[in-house]
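Session log. Operator J.P. requested a structure for one protein chain; no other inputs attached. Running the standard single-chain path with token output.
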Amino acid sequence: QVQLVESGGGLVQAGGSLRLSCTASGRTFSAYAMGWFRQAPGKERECVAALSRSGGYTVQIDSVKGRFTISRDNAKNTVYLQMNSLKLEDTAVYYCAATNRDPYFTHIVYSSVGEYDYWGQGTQVTVSS
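Structure written below.
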């Protein structure tokens, strides 16, 4: 099992930046594919960005391409979401998630809620005008 703790959320003006961090417990962080999800009030949870175990493969939703970057540092058991040029519509609770399915495939990226087994508690990101 792995426990995930997010940090870095907060209130920021439109056009500003935030970097979210998610630190995982345990010694096998590199065995997990990771993802960042968000959920706004009244909306379904969606995958913002995800990356493979190797870190070499990533996916992002179209609305954040060119603005958000997901990365991981296996030595620190941490995955990051760098968010630039933030917009009002980026306001949501952001969740970090981990999965260890298909353990022999290091290049697979997962982007569905149901593919993830472990979730953090979430961190609020609020973008103001």
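Operator note: The chain has no helices and eleven strands.
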